C-alpha cells in the first residue's frame, strides 16, 4: 500500500527540489526533533524525490541517527559482513583510512534476498575538498528507455553477488562469521536473483534494479548478451540527466531510497580523511513487473 498522500509534501516540509526527477534539499528542520507528522512527511518526500539532503544537523550523533531510523522503519545491523568496530552495531562506518570507499556505482546490499529499503548517511569527517556523492534515478532511467527495450527487460532476472567486494573480508577478517542478518548469522555470500526491473512497493513505479557493484550477470542469456545488456543499462542509468550530485558540508545528512536509486562516492581527495556513518532500514523482497 502506498503511503503517499494527496497533499503535496512541499506544503509540509521546507523542501527545495534539485531537479525534475531526483533530489531535494530540506532546510530549517532538526531531524532529531521531528514530530510524528514530520517523520511521515519525510518518508513521503523520500519516496517522491528518492534522495533528500538535510543541512546543519549538528545535534545528530550515532544514537540520534539510529533513533531517526527507527521512526522511519526497522533498522538493520550496519552491514551483513563488516564488523561495526567501535561504533554501534546498527552503524556502518565508512572510513577512508580503513578502505571505506564506495567508488563504484551500486545500490546498498543487493546481494541478499531482502535488500535494505532506505539508507541514512551522516558526514562525520570530511576532506577539505572532494568526496562528493552522486545518486542515479533508476525510475527516470527506466522510463526513458525505448518501449521495446523496456518490454524485454521487464521479463529478465539478474544475479547479485557480494563475493567480489566482501568475500575476502568475510573469509579472512571475520573468519567466515558475519553479523546477525534477517535472524541468522551471515556466514557465506550466496548469490541471489532479483528482477532486472523492480516495481516500487509504495509508488508502484518501475525502475532498473541492476548495479555494477553487485550484479554479476543476467539469467538465461549468453555471457556476451548479458554483458552487452548490462553495459547499456549502466550507461543509461548514469547519464547526467538522471544524476544528482551532493557536495558535503559538516552536519549534512542524506537519506535515500535504495528501491529507486544507485549511488557512487567520488574518491578524489587523495590521502585526506573521510568518515561517513550509515544506517539502513529493512526492505522487502524485490518484485518485478510480471509478479
Give a structural overview.
The protein has helices at about 35-50, 60-70, 140-145, 145-155, 165-175, 225-235, and strands spanning about 15, 25, 50-55, 90-95, 120-125, 135, 155-160, 180, 185, 190-195, 195-200, 205-210, 215-220, 245, 255, 260-265, 275-280. It has a single domain (about 10-125, about 135-280), classed as Double-stranded beta-helix, CATH 3.60.130.10. Helix content is about 20%, strand content about 25%. Strand 2, helix 1 (about 35-50) and strand 3 form a beta-alpha-beta unit. The protein is built from six helices and 17 strands. The chain is globular. The protein has a seven-stranded mixed beta sheet, with helices on one face. Strands 14-6-16 form a three-stranded antiparallel beta sheet. It has a three-stranded antiparallel beta sheet with strand order 10-7-13. It starts with 14 loop residues before the first strand and ends in a 10-residue tail after the last strand. The relative contact order is 0.25. With about 290 residues, the protein is an alpha+beta fold. InterPro entries: AtsK-like, TauD-like_sf, TauD/TfdA-like. This is Taurine dioxygenase.
Amino acid at each position: 500500500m502506498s503511503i503517499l498522500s494527496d497533499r503535496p509534501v512541499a506544503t509540509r516540509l521546507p523542501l527545495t527540489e534539485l531537479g525534475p526527477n531526483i533530489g531535494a534539499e530540506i532546510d530549517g528542520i532538526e531531524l532529531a526533533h521531528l514530530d510524528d507528522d514530520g517523520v511521515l512527511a519525510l518518508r513521503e518526500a523520500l519516496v517522491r524525490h528518492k534522495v533528500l539532503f538535510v543541512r546543519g544537523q549538528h545535534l545528530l550523533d550515532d544514537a540520534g541517527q539510529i533513533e531517526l531510523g527507527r521512526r522511519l522503519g526497522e533498522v538493520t545491523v550496519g552491514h551483513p559482513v563488516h564488523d561495526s568496530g567501535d561504533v554501534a552495531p546498527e552503524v556502518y562506518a565508512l572510513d577512508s583510512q580503513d578502505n571505506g570507499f564506495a567508488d563504484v556505482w551500486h545500490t546498498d546490499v543487493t546481494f541478499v534476498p531482502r535488500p535494505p529499503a532506505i539508507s541514512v548517511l551522516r558526514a562525520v569527517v570530511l576532506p577539505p575538498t572532494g568526496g562528493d556523492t552522486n545518486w542515479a534515478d533508476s525510475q527516470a532511467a527506466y522510463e526513458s528507455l525505448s518501449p521495446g527495450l523496456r518490454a524485454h527487460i521487464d521479463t529478465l532476472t539478474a544475479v547479485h553477488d557480494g563475493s567480489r567486494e566482501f568475500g575476502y573480508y568475510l573469509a579472512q577478517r571475520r573468519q567466515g562469521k558475519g553479523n546477525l542478518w534477517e535472524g541468522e548469522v551471515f556466514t557465506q555470500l550466496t548469490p541471489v536473483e532479483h528482477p532486472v526491473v523492480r516495481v516500487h512497493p509504495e509508488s508502484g513505479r518501475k525502475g532498473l534494479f541492476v548495479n555494477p557493484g553487485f550484479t554479476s550477470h543476467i539469467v538465461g542469456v549468453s555471457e556476451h548478451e548479458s554483458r552487452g545488456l548490462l553495459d547499456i543499462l549502466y550507461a543509461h542509468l548514469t547519464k547526467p540527466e538522471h544524476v544528482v550530485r551532493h557536495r558535503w558540508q559538516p552536519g549534512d545528512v542524506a537519506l535515500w531510497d535504495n528501491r529507486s536509486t544507485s549511488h557512487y562516492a567520488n574518491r578524489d581527495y587523495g590521502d585526506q580523511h573521510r568518515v561517513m556513518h550509515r544506517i539502513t532500514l529493512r526492505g522487502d523482497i524485490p518484485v518485478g513487473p510480471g509478479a
